[in-house]
Design brief:
Radius of gyration: 49 Å
Structural class: alpha+beta
Number of strands: 25
Strand content: 25-35%
Order of helices and strands: HEEEEEEEHHEEEEEEEEEEEEEEEEEHE
Number of helices: 4
Distance between the termini: 78 Å
CATH class of the largest domain: Mainly Beta
CATH topology of the largest domain: conserved putative lor/sdh protein from methanococcus maripaludis s2 fold
Length: 451
């Protein structure tokens, strides 16, 4: 009812029907749009997921190229210093040490007396030999005189010729006895010369194995518990020294005159001392497959000591014409030695190669590779011929061509990195799952896709 109590005029039914159909159409249009957007968004998400899944299924790899070999190769090996000459002096007579005159580190000249031995038994034997010589000499003189007398009577009725011949033979026998006794005296006199222990050459006393009163046998010093005689003194000539190094067989072709080397001592690692090449054993030690190499150095001041351990660094000539690659870029398979090359469409081609000398973290490739070839830096044994991969850039500061030990890593020190092989051994077969392949490619650091 209105203000005056009358009812409002009714709306015509024809006007309501006029607005109902457009509103219904608009609702259907909105509903259709929402449904279409939902279908499109689900399809787009499915396509994105499929693309991401396909992309993550591709192995992540880093690409490197081969390099020319170095002009010079270095190799550091342990070595031992030995004296130019060294003599172990043993006892030659039986007796007791009465004196020793030279101690450890004493500088001596050839002929200097090192020690003295008292030999009462030898002295008695020498006296007896001289007395025996005097006896046989007297007998010989008598036999000669007798033979002369009987010879003078030969041809007379006083003596028979047989008796004359016997006297002459007896004189000859006595002469032989004299010679034997003289040699016996000479032997004992020579032995008494060993009562004094003398230096055989100029040098340094590096060992003294006796004290006053020690018993010495004719076979050396007092035997040890194992029965091996020990030297009484050891003298070394250190004016020049020999350095012995066992060099691996694969470097034997470079062991020739003109080879340069330096050495360092553990107590002074910063000081490099030049060495001269002398010779090699010209034979390979079967147990170690090494060649014994001898170097020399002058030591006028005696600063270097025999028996010392040293580190010897060789400088071998290299071959720049031979390509080198990191050792971890080489695959060792039943089919042979291969590298993984990156071809068109980022597809892998397994190339057969022939490796040369091992240079430590790098190896020589003598055939099967060109300088501009793109190689997978650290391939897995799971890579197949024609397989597509995704190239990633190394993390900041990482060098894919460097040794794995030189790469930055989030792993604990001393632990192996994923997909790394030990030097000289094939890598373990691995097929990385999605989400970790990029980590493998940079040895512990997350890699970013290439632009």
């Amino acid at each position: 009812m209105n203000a005056i109590g009358t009812k409002p005029a009714p709306v015509p039914a024809k006007a309501g029907r006029r607005w109902g159909w457009p509103l219904a159409g608009l609702g259907l249009l909105v509903a259709g749009g929402l449904a279409g957007y939902g279908i499109w968004s689900r399809h787009s998400a499915t396509a994105d997921l499929t693309q991401a899944t396909d992309d993550s299924a591709l192995p992540r790899v880093q690409v490197i190229t081969a390099k020319n070999g170095p002009k010079q190769r270095t190799l550091t090996l342990p070595g031992n210093i030995e004296a130019w000459y060294q003599a172990a002096i043993y006892g030659q007579v039986t007796g007791y040490v009465s004196h020793w005159y030279k101690d450890y580190g004493a500088e001596v000249k050839a002929g200097d007396v090192l020690g003295a031995i008292e030999t009462p038994s030898l002295d008695a034997d020498l006296a007896a030999a001289r007395a025996q010589l005097a006896t046989v000499q007297a007998n010989y003189n008598l036999a000669v005189l007798t033979a002369k007398r009987w010879t003078a009577l030969a041809g007379t009725q006083a003596v028979a010729q047989q008796d004359v011949d016997i006297k002459k033979a007896d004189a000859a026998a006595q002469k032989a006895q004299v010679a034997a006794s003289q040699q016996n005296v000479i032997k004992y006199e020579a032995q008494t010369g060993f009562k004094k222990l003398v230096a055989p050459f100029d040098g340094v006393v590096t060992a003294r194995g006796v004290n006053i009163g020690d018993y010495v046998s004719a076979a050396g010093s007092s035997p040890t518990a194992t029965g091996t005689p020990q030297p009484l003194f050891t003298v070394a000539d250190v004016h020049k020294l020999r350095i012995f190094v066992s060099v691996p067989q694969n470097f034997s072709d470079a062991l020739r005159p003109g080879l340069t080397a330096t050495m360092t001592l553990p107590q002074d690692p910063g000081k490099r001392i030049p060495l001269q090449f002398l010779t090699t054993a010209k034979a390979v030690v079967a147990a170690t497959r090494t060649v014994v190499t001898e170097l020399v150095i002058d030591n006028p001041a005696g600063e270097l000591w025999p028996g010392a351990y040293v580190s010897v660094q060789f400088a071998f000539p290299g071959d720049p014409n031979v390509l080198i690659v990191p050792e971890q870029a080489v695959l060792f398979r039943a089919q042979g030695t291969q590298v993984a090359l990156l071809g068109d469409g980022d597809k892998v081609h397994l190339q057969d190669v022939v490796i040369g000398r091992n240079l430590g973290t790098d190896v020589q490739i003598t055939s099967g590779l060109k300088l501009d070839d793109k190689l997978v830096a650290n391939p897995s044994l799971g890579l197949l011929e024609g397989q597509q991969v995704k190239v990633v850039e190394p993390a900041a500061g990482a060098d894919p061509s460097a040794s794995p030990a030189a790469q930055p890593s989030k792993s604990q020190p001393g632990q192996p990195q994923p997909n790394q092989a030990q030097p000289g051994q094939p890598q373990a077969s691995q097929q990385p799952s999605a989400g970790v392949q990029a980590v493998e490619a940079s040895s512990g650091a997350e890699a970013k896709p290439a632009d």
